[in-house]
Amino acid sequence: MTTRIRIPHPEFRGRRAFLWRLPLLAVLAFAACCAGACSDAPSGAGHGNLAPETHLALLPDSALRTTTSRQHMHWWGDDPDGFVAGYFFSFDGVTWTFTTKTDSIFSLTLRGTDTTYHFAVRAVDTQGNGVHDANGPYGAEPFTDANGNGRHDAGEAFTDFGLWDPTPATLGYPITNTPPVVAFVKGSDVPESTFTVASFTWVGTDLDGDESIAEYRYALNDTASATAWKRLPRAQTFLTLTAKDGIISGNNVFYLRAVDIAGAESRTIRMPAEGGTWHVRIPKTDLLIVDDYGPTDDTPAFYRGIVDTLLGGRFRGADVFDIKAGASSTSKGRFVPPFVNPTFTETLKLFTHVLWYCDNNPTIDVAQISLAPYQQSGGHVLYTASFPESALDPRGGITDYAPVDSLTPQSITFVPANTRLEAHAESPGYPVLTRDTKGTPVAFIRGLYRKINAANMYVLGADPRWSGNPVVAVRSGDRRFVMFAIPLHRFDGAGNAGAVIRQVFEQEFGVR
Hints:
Blueprint: H1 10-37, E1 53-56, E2 70-78, E3 84-90, E4 97-99, E5 103-107, E6 114-125, E7 169-176, E8 181-184, E9 193-194, E10 197-205, E11 213-220, E12 230-233, E13 238-242, E14 250-252, E15 254-260, E16 269-271, E17 278-280, E18 287-292, H2 299-309, E19 319-322, H3 340-348, E20 353-358, H4 364-376, E21 380-384, H5 395-401, E22 404-407, E23 420-423, E24 433-434, E25 448-450, E26 455-460, E27 471-475, E28 481-484, H6 497-508
Parallel strand pairs: 9-17, 18-19, 18-20, 20-21, 21-28
Antiparallel strand pairs: 1-2, 2-5, 3-4, 3-6, 6-7, 8-10, 10-13, 11-12, 11-15, 14-17, 15-16, 22-25, 23-24, 23-26, 26-27, 27-28
Helix pairs in contact: 3-4, 4-5
């Protein structure tokens, strides 16, 4: 291998000699400086510990415009001879809070329509005195309370603060108040017609922080009078009203607004929406007919006719609550309130007695929620329904409100005309019921197994289509609930359905 040696041009030889000697001069100068020849040393050794400097992301004159009370503030610190341990911040210059963060979101409480807050933050460095200072100028130094006894013990690590920035970074925040906003929860609309019970729910928000909402105010029908507005605490966003609260017979409107701590009010909202009202009915008697029946036939007239003549016409003209109107496979009837509990339950409590008749697709979830508390309040229920076999087994729900422990797994899919229902030995004295001869088929009959404290009332007469004599009607031990697992209106062949209902009201419910 051949090695080439490049000889510089004579013109540059002097310059190369100078450049070669330059590093040596720099080394000599650096050595002299280290020996004390330099008077401007970058180290803090000659000056002692230097305090850190604190900065805010905004310059003091950049926040003079008004802003909202929810502020995201940023800061940082520089230490010329060490490291920053953390920061103390304050809004009053008296109480200081330590943090290792360099930003935070603050919700500044309004003291009036407009408020100016003065924020101060100062950095502190790590060059402390090596011991825990329990009473420093800004409070005790924080430490890791390993044993949780609330005091510093030997071996527990603490933040050893050094110097504080003597001139904290400060900034004024002029806060302007924004009024709150209130809106009804979607899907919570009151039905177009109710009895004297209605519920409302809403959500309140405020750009200044939801906690700045002081209260809600509502009114029924009249908003002109100052006394018409009632107050609710901020935490209450659900309200159920009854006649004693001002719901009246006929058309009603509910009004609502929010008020913040500075007195600013939201826009007033109303339910129903602008131009609408909801109609309220006053109970006519102490019996309610719950129509849980979808087909269009004479069944509703059958029960109304019996009730009108029951006990000498005591319940004549009784109210009907149609919970099947407008129902579909994915939604409840349009008169069923969004909140079964408490609204529907409290509606039932307006009445002493309920006659609830169903088709073969009963609204079990509504009954499950409402009927147990209704009975506990002293109410009486006569319930008649058929229960089909389906992917959704209804037995778990039924046992919550009816005096049954379970139902037979399979239903009787066809009950022929003239089939007899006979009184069980546990309930003597009830007349025979006979399947009518009308063309409407009767199916989905499920046998019942009563609860231990209940009593059997009716059984199916013997027939080759089923085994034995399935129990199809039971009553609760307290005689507040009578359940027929048959469509009672299809067993009036002997004209005894009305007599059975009368006997239930007199003998079981104690109505005279």
